[in-house]
Amino acid sequence: METKNTILQIENLKVEFRVGKKCVHAVNDVNLTVHRGKTLGIVGESGCGKSVTAHSILKLLPQNGRIVDGKILFAETAEGPVKELQNMKRTGQEIRAIRGQKIAMIFQDPMMSLNPVYTIGSQIMENLKLHEKLEEREAKARIIHLLGQLGIPEPEQRYKEYPHQFSGGMKQRVMIAIAMICNPSLLIADEPTTALDVTIQKQILRLMQKLRDDFGTSVILITHNMGIVAEACDEVAVMYMGRVVESGPVRQIFENPQHPYTRALLRSVPVPGMRSDVELKSIEGSTPDASIQFDHCEFEPRCEYASEQCRGGFPQARECEPGHVVRCFLRGGGES
Length: 336
Ligand code: SF4
Known about the structure:
Blueprint: E1 6-19, E2 22-35, E3 39-43, H1 50-57, E4 65-74, E5 83-84, H2 93-98, E6 103-106, H3 110-113, H4 120-131, H5 136-149, H6 155-159, H7 168-180, E7 186-190, H8 198-215, E8 218-223, H9 226-232, E9 235-240, E10 243-249, H10 250-255, H11 260-268, E11 318-321, E12 324-326
Helix pairs in contact: 4-5, 4-7
This protein binds iron/sulfur cluster.
């Protein structure tokens, strides 16, 4: 792995879940690259494997899930060294030194993640003390400073308050503070704005972009919404049934989408710059049961361009323009 520009590289990752007697292939042959100081969006419908991919990085898979193949390579600094996360034990010393300190995660619902009986300050302090030895006064000053940087007014006062005294958007800022207090080099945000209204959503996305720019933090942003990708990401990987079907720089994917699923996602939500007369269309059909093991392109049952070739096997990933990779037999996106 090249460490100067790359902080995280996932190579041919496969993750399986045991569900009763069934084996579910949640992530299949996934390749992803996160560049330093950039935001990679992972987008797709629920159950496509985007959260499982993110949880695999920090060894946060549930007990019935396991990485069966592939590599997760992480280089905190441009000088290296490269660490292989896939082999670390989920409760081991090595991953605990990385989780929360070098790679931090924020989740969708701050209500579920904040403890109602502890003050905001003590919950951020807990994460800080776990990873760094600091005097109480110094730690408190750092937390208050960060709360202010995150746009929380009167941070000294808010430090002493409880989660129920915060609005949804302010709670999500607190979650970002918990994640950012140890200056992680990589932040994974799993649907961080889904529970928030549109105005607050925009504020949180802007805040995450600011963090990326001010602290040089690299970000993985997981979302089902292409509008959020357009607003907040530099690069994007589109996932469908455990596979990355298209990836590349956001601008290229939006201007020249190649995979029929990417096109369908783009037609289903308003994206910035879209003409007001464009009709939004929901994606036809539903995602097949994840336990079904396909012997050909998984999108075939929903694809308007499906041909005999598509029912005969899996398309290989190919580069259709520099940095823009697609996994589809169709050439030129299928549009005349
Ligand atoms: Fe559709 Fe065929 Fe491309 Fe699959 S490989 S997305 S079925 S055109």
